[in-house]
Amino acid sequence: MSVSPRPATPDDVDAVVDLVESAYRGDASRAGWTTEADLLGGRRTDAAMIRNLLADPRSVLLVLDDDAALPGRRGLLACCQLERREPAADGEAPAAYFGLFAVRPGRQGAGVGSRLLAAAEEMAAGWGARRLELTVLSHRPELLAWYERRGFRLTGATHPFPGYADARFGHPRRDDLVLLEMAKPLG
């Protein structure tokens, strides 16, 4: 496994979509602990969404190559997205948003996610961000606990789950999904 993440390129789009889908949706995602298959059907992302992230100058998509991939195949072990956020009008310190975080299900639990998160925190701090923000589905207590063990805290803010209004984010299997905001101070 490549120890250092690299910025994704347009050549990575299909591999990123495959990785994210394998980690969150469908039966394949049940091999790991990050599955959302019981909460959501449909797709988690698509090639157009990934291309839009790559084109956004405020955003970087980091990937870890999977050295165990089959010869001749471009395999990814993990990915995440970082987005620069503008400081709030009230003078709040600049922040970065962390999202699209996925680790190949068969390789979860070996510290890969922690290493990628640490690299993302370092990059965000290098941008001048004073905190890292993210959102987690309300019905994912194990994921909330994982982030809490890494220094994130619930902010008290909630956001509507976008899948109720936009099928590109999946098809909710419940009518009570919300996103809980978490943040961690940097530096």
- Biggest β-sheet strands, sense, barrel: 7 strands, mixed
Structurally, how many domains make up the residues?
1
N/C terminus separation: 28 Å
What's the multimeric state?
A: single chain
How confident is the prediction overall: mean pLDDT?
A: 87
Walk across the major sheet and give the strand order. Answer: 1-3-4-5-6-9-7
Tell how many strands the DSSP assignment holds: 9
For the CA atoms, what is the radius of gyration? Answer: 16 Å
Give the full name of the CATH homologous superfamily: Gcn5-related N-acetyltransferase (GNAT)
Helix content: 10-25%
Class from helix and strand fractions = alpha+beta
Order of helices and strands: EHEHEEEHEHEEE
In DSSP terms (H or I, runs of 4 or more residues), the helix count works out at 4
CATH architecture: 3-Layer(aba) Sandwich
pLDDT < 50 stretches: none
Q: CATH topology, what is it called?
A: Aminopeptidase
The CATH top-level class label: Alpha Beta
Query: Which overall shape is indicated by the principal axes computed on the Cα atoms?
Result: globular
Main features:
seven-stranded mixed β-sheet, alpha+beta, two-stranded antiparallel ribbon, Aminopeptidase, 187 residues
